[in-house]
Amino acid sequence: MQRSTALFFLLALFGGFVLFKVKYEVVEIEQKLAQTEQQIAREKETLHILKAEWSHLNEPQRLQKLAEKYLDIVPMKTEQIAAVVSDFSNEGSIKRLLPQSHLASMKRTK
To answer: What is the pTM of this model?
Structure first.
């Protein structure tokens, strides 16, 4: 009877130790999960802020002002646009602009 009592005592002690260890591992994993969820929430908030900043930076009016301020580009006049269109409508000017290899491939596709 003493042997079985000692065996049950050791089994109960071992089971208690295993349960104790598992409990603290679960607590540790729950803490890591909570930290990860907090980090995800912070990242989502940061992403939301960055999207708002990006939409502000890409506003057409703002870009137009920056282009006028820093770029020396003036809008093309109607006569300039007509000249460019007429240059490209003439086949001779296209041949001048394109390399010979490209012209040969254009003829094959026709």
So the answer is: 0.51
